Amino acid sequence: MSRPFILGLTGSIGMGKSTVATMLRELGVPVFDADAAVHHLQGPGGALLPAIEAAFPGTAGPNGVKRQELGEQVFGDAAALKRLEAIVHPAVARMRESFMIEHMGEALVVFDIPLLFEKGHGADLDAVAVVSASAEVQRARVLARPGMTPEKFAHILSLQVPDAEKRARADHVIDTGLPLAQTRAQVVALVAAIREKNPLR
Fold first, then answer.
1. Which of 34, 96, 189, 198 could hold 5 in an S-S bridge, CB 3.0 to 4.6 Å?
2. Cα distance between residue 61 and residue 45, in whole Å
């Protein structure tokens, strides 16, 4: 059975992935946002709150997961993190399956996966697009965020696959260090090329 072309979208912190995801949506491309799915499942009235509270008492309430409390129970504890992932990952996978069923008639869908390379999530993808900019642009963007410090930024970078390696492993690289119109032109060209090769409709 024919199905949409599945493009994975990823990139390190501050590289402009959210901006590119918005551009894709503006072009009518369905985008599955893994982070947004987790926030939905763990937010107010979220489906995973009872299971998370049972596994990590005191970490969930009417307003959703208490991120600080959950972080304190999970941070630095590999076994606890595995328990949490065993609750979250299957639920996200079910949401992704529903998304695919809903958009089966599309030529192209995108999976927005921040830690695609770090967590090895590329198995069911047809190609991967990495958003990238220079280290200087990245640093300036990230340090402009509220509450961000050079130390926090360095720590986050240490947990991510280096940008150069992501670029080397990507099928497509979208340069976000350019004016927005030029980045958008790259996105438009990529979408057009994929739709042309996979004309489901």
1. 198
2. 9
